[in-house]
Write the structure tokens for this entry.
Amino acid sequence: MFAKLKKKIAEEAATAPRPGGVSRMPRSVSKESITSVGADSGDDFPSDGSSSREDLSSQLFRRNEQIRKLEIKLSDYAEQIRNLQKVKEKLENALETHQDSFVKKLQEQNEARQANTAKMAEGMALALEKKDQEWREKLSHVEKERKLLSVQLQEMREKSLSLFQKRDERDELEGFQQQELAKVKHMLLQKEASLAQVEQELGSSTQELTLAREELQASRTLAMRLTAELQELQRQHADLQVERDELLDTGESAKSKITALEQRAHELQAYIQQLSVDLQNVNHLAGARLQTAKRKVWVGLAVCLSVCFQRSGETQPAPANAALDLLLPPWQQQALELERARAQEGLSVVRRQCAEQVGGLREQLAALEGARESERTAAQRQRVSVPPVWPPRRAGPGRGRSSAAAYAKAHGPQPLARPPTRSLAVATRRPSLSVPCQAAVLEDAPAARKTHLPPSDAGEGEPNGEVAATDVAQLQKENRELEQQLAEKSKMIKQLQQRMAELKKTLQKELKIRPDGEAPEAPAATLTVTNNSDLNDSREINFEYLKHVVLKFMSCRESEAFHLIKAVSVLLNFSQEEENMLKETLEYKMSWFGSKPSPRGSIRPSISSPRTPWS
């Protein structure tokens, strides 16, 4: 402490300026003072005549002020140094006195300590000898006790090891039994709920089955009644088939006639066009003949008039022209009437021929129309006679469908009357046949427009035989679907009942085995359940069991964890390598100083690997 104080005082004395020395320039000195000091440091002022006396006086005044300030600061610094030297002298005197007293006290304490240590060494030597003797006796006694305790400890270790092994085995057995029992109880509760639901569905399905059986009985009686009617219908169908064949033959002949008539109509259309061309040529020839006749008359009249004028020697052009005008109109009227009569005669011939041909076509079409109407009435009669055979539909859609489906299943859908396709073809060809005839008649004269044939309606309604056949097929299809659903439900009910019986057996085995403390056989029972059920049910059971195992794993002990790993590996089809890796990882997580297991290659989940049995 005093050494640091001395060092600090020495540093301050070394850095402080001496009284007679020059002090450092303070930092507050301005730039102008530095320049003025540099300017005044020379021997004389600059003699260039640029500065005046006023500037020099002001510079001297500022310089004097600066010098005065520096002197004041220098005196202050000297006073501070003197004060510091006085303080230093006082501190040195106090330090010397303190050091002297401290050395004296230290010598006295050392002497007292040496005397005390000598006394204590003598006492401690005596006490140590006594303690050494006592500890030797105690050590011999403790050695004897240690030998006895080591023998007892060895015996206790052996007993504790056997007890620990038994307790671990018992804990493992209890955990495994609890796990399997919880699994079976969980699955049993779920299967009881599903069984109750299935029983409800079974009740509804049995009701539907009874209704279906009643409907089936009704449909059977109906089918027996319908078989007789069907035989009658088959006989009628044979008769109608004969009539249909006859109608088809007549239709074929009508078709050939229609084709011939169409060809004839095309020929008539071409002939009418040729006649129209000939008529136009006749009109042109009549006009040309009229012009030539007019020219001849004009030439003859001109010659006659010129001869008359030459003979008489008179010049009277105006009366001659008037006489010519009087003679010309009757001649023109006669020529026009002659040409018109010829044209009317040709047109009457053409009209008569067309009327004859149209009359023949009308007769043929009337015959075809009568054949078509007879065929249509026969088809309608057959179609009207067929619907009363079908039974009336009841209020419930299922009964009508089941009865119709039973009838269709017993006898099959009979082909009903087909629509008269050939008569429809004839009816559709009639407008195409009448169009050229109409065109020919319209080209001939306005009177023929009233006698053209009206086009018949070709869009006849098709019979309902195909609709009835589709209804029968639809009902038969729905009946098959209902029977298939009923068979599937009954099959599922049988599977659930079998699974329920197996689960009950497994639970009874668990309850019998648990009080005796024997090894559980529940895994084998669960294996038989999953082997007897289909793949989807086994996956559902395994998923539920996996959830149970995971929840159990969250609150289990270390000994139960390995059994749960075994259960998970069985459920997820792990290989032996994957199972060992899980066990090593679990041991690493539970231990304090264990080493982390190294990954053994790329371990992939063995989904398709066979299921390993429980060990």
In short: The longest helix spans residues 53-312. The chain has a mean pLDDT of 69. The radius of gyration is 71 Å. Residues 275 and 350 are 7 Å apart (CA to CA).
